[in-house]
Amino acid sequence: MHTKLILIVEDNEELRCSLERHLSETGFRTISASDGFKGFKRFQTEKPDLVVLDHGPPRVDGYQLLAKIRHFGDTPVIMATTWNSHEDELECRHLGADDYLPKPIHNAVLTEHVKMLLTRGEDGGANRPIHYRKLTIDPDEYTAYVDGPLGAIELKLTNSELKLLAHMARCPGQVFERADLIYACFPDSNMLLRTIDSHVSNLKRKLAGAGIDGYLETVQGVGYRMRNLNTNPMDA
Question: What mean pLDDT do residues 9-35 have?
């Protein structure tokens, strides 16, 4: 019997019930929502282990909901869409989806994808090395390196700085509010918002010292983000 909780956000009632029934029969616990607003509320209150997300539920669409989920961490997300092209899959993954399934969804195929993602998480997949442009972060080893002209430059980061850097590097371009960063990286702490400012300031200084100034950006009045340099290769 699985103990993992799966959230299904799908406005098609017949499909939603079918997916819930099959996953339940396979041994998973399931909850569901018929629109993106309800889906996000259930995500916040019940903290599922994985989300199966339709790209176009009403009120809050799948891409908006995916962005909200990524604000709060690395919960695996399988994006399901009627669009079926390599460009669509790349867009879903660029926005932070862990997996992509074109519709119509076969119940058994979905179940295998769910098992695969959850097994990867148990094996430490969420902490696998992160490679972004000249930056490499290994959360398991608590190390971060910059690819310099004469070889790798190790960043001397505190554990708190490394957690923040890894979290933002997983979703380049995504803006994170200070409270979101505390919730995702330090859920059991009483950290103050201004402490995030101090950590990010130190990170900016250390990245600049290693030759990659500009990777972290302050979004005035909102928070911070890893600048999406992939949109312009000449920026790095």
Answer: 91
